Amino acid sequence: MAKKDTESRELTPWQAFSDLSRWEREMEHLFENFFERRLGARSGGLWPVRSANLAPIDLYEDKNELVAKVELPGLDKDDIDVSISDHTLTVKAEKKHEEEIKDKNYYRVERSHGAIRRVVELPVGVETEQIKAQFKNGLLEIRMPRSQDEQSKQKRIEVQG
Known about the structure:
Layout: H1 16-39, H2 48-53, E1 57-62, E2 65-71, E3 80-85, E4 88-95, E5 114-121, E6 132-136, E7 139-145, E8 155-157, E9 159-160
Parallel strand pairs: 6-9
Antiparallel strand pairs: 1-2, 2-7, 3-4, 3-8, 4-5, 6-7
């Protein structure tokens, strides 16, 4: 008769995502260093160049209108230009360069400046004469009533603040 193995074996929980998390940290570090050296980009996640230049935008439908919300922190309403042509919404802005403090040892330089331009194709035609744009606390909200006509006219939209 065979002797039974009475030794106990403990199970170690497998942490499937620990290797993935470590890999993600290494990749983020690699890209951050690459872009800082090559392009002078600010750190800001896995793709720092993208986060430095683009204004995040949400576009959704609410009742009978399209709504676009664009994050533009650190800007004034006078720095923003909104226009529409055909099925295309264009948001342009410029964040002016603040004067550098001379004779200081910087440890990090992350604030960005320069031109921002977002061009978004609209899924439907809109009534260009009824578009309203409101800018408050760094968030631009553009409300565009849907049109029965699928073609939208070209128009510059005044931003209210």
